[in-house]
Amino acid sequence: MVSNDEIEKDAKIIVDACIKVHRELGPGLLESTYQFCLAHELRTRGKSMRCEVMLPVRFDGIEIEAGYRIDMLVAECIVIENKSVSSLLPIHEAQHLTYLKLSVFRLGFLMNWNVPLIKDGIRRKVNNL
Predict the structure, then answer these.
(1) Is the pLDDT of residue 126 over 90?
(2) Three-class SS string for the chain?
(3) Whole-angstrom Cα distance, residue 114 to residue 82?
(4) Which one has a higher pLDDT value, 35 or 64?
């Protein structure tokens, strides 16, 4: 199991990498562009990273491949959901919380890249296991 200190260290790296990507690219691009660039930036910082990770639903002792995918999974413990929208809606928050609840991961970031200042587009969520 990953310690809270390690998760917090990785979280700081993620936020710093998001700031760098957003400073270079600015708002207005497709979320897939930000995802690719963020993945590249995190890998250059030595973080393991997977994109489009299948997330099965577990029900009554079975696993259902229901088509859910985590945008990014960093260090096998932090979920990132990328958006590039005019504003985050309650459905975006609900989707991100659902991904955290369906998984065993404790921390996630909901990112809206389509903002003038990236600090206004970062939502940190904790899964209360």
Answers:
(1) yes
(2) CCCHHHHHHHHHHHHHHHHHHHHHHCCCCCHHHHHHHHHHHHHHCCCCEEEEEECCEEECCEEECCCCEEEEEECCCEEEEEECCCCCCHHHHHHHHHHHHHCCCCEEEEEECCCCCHHHHEEEEECCC
(3) 10
(4) 35
Instruction: Tell whether the torsion through CA atoms of 124, 76, 33 and 44 is positive or negative.
Output: positive
Q: Measured between alpha carbons, how far is 35 from 6 in angstroms, rounded to an integer?
A: 23
Q: Are 25 and 37 in contact (CB under 8 A)?
A: yes
**pLDDT tens for residues 99-120?**
999 988 999 999 999 999 999 9
Residue 95 belongs to domain spanning: 4-126
Closest CA to 66 of 95, 36, 87: 95
Q: How far is residue 43's CA from residue 68's CA, in Å, rounded to a whole number?
A: 24
Q: What total of structural domains would you count in the chain?
A: 1
Q: What is the pLDDT of residues 41-93, one digit of tens each?
A: 999 999 999 999 999 998 899 999 888 999 999 999 999 999 999 999 999 99
